[in-house]
Write a structure and sequence with these properties.
It is a single chain. The chain is mostly helical and 190 residues long. The chain is built from 10 helices and no strands. Helices cover 74% and strands 0% of the residues. The longest helix is centred in the middle third of the chain and has 27 residues. The radius of gyration is 17 Å and the shape is globular.
Length: 190
């Protein structure tokens, strides 16, 4: 499996070098609300972009099952997102505690997981890889921001607001599992 991961990572770095370089620079921004937008761009330009542009036959030429392809792409996304978070924290936030950096890493993990699942679900049902997830993100921010933090249940479940890390992590894991199930059972057009 490690050789397959290496082959996929090399393929992504070669094919998407320009995008990854730009997103990596933009993901160094220490403000998490700003990073969310660039994380959404990164998420939608990974496997959901390939599915949207009908590049599955190219991806399956590397001998991957659809499940392996899903998880390796997800791991690649997390590698880029979390590495840039760590580098950005080291560069810009050198006087902030490690606990604060850990919370931001967890926030990045939850947000990336949730929106990878959302973006994959959108392309599997035939929608856009960026437009619909962007609208869902805007709706997520608006609904989670309505009223008082403590009286709004969506504030605690929201992958953007993350009022309760365990609850928003459970929502993110559910979205990822649902996307994996749909990718495995429904499949995509090659």
């Amino acid at each position: 499996m490690l050789a397959k991961m290496e082959a996929f990572f090399m393929k992504e770095f070669v094919e998407k070098a320009g995008k990854l370089a730009i997103f990596s620079l933009l993901l160094l921004i220490p403000s998490f609300p700003v990073r969310m937008f660039f994380l959404l761009l990164l998420v939608s330009s990974m496997l959901p972009w390939d599915v949207q542009h009908k590049r599955m036959s190219l991806l399956t030429s590397i001998p991957f099952s659809s499940g392996e392809l899903f998880w390796v792409s997800y791991l690649f996304l997390l590698t880029i997102a979390l590495t840039t978070q760590l580098i950005g924290s080291a560069i810009f936030l050198w006087d902030i505690s490690l606990g604060w950096v850990g919370i931001n890493l967890l926030g990045t993990l939850i947000f990336s997981t949730a929106y990878f699942g959302i973006s994959m679900l959108c392309v599997i049902v035939g929608l856009d890889n960026f437009g619909m997830p962007f609208l869902i993100w805007i709706g997520d921010i608006i609904i989670g921001g309505i009223g008082s933090r403590f009286s709004n249940p969506w504030f605690f479940l929201s992958p953007s607001h993350q009022g309760n890390v365990l609850m928003s992590g459970a929502v993110a894991a559910t979205l990822l599992a649902l996307a994996f199930w749909a990718f495995q059972t429904k499949g995509v057009k090659k």
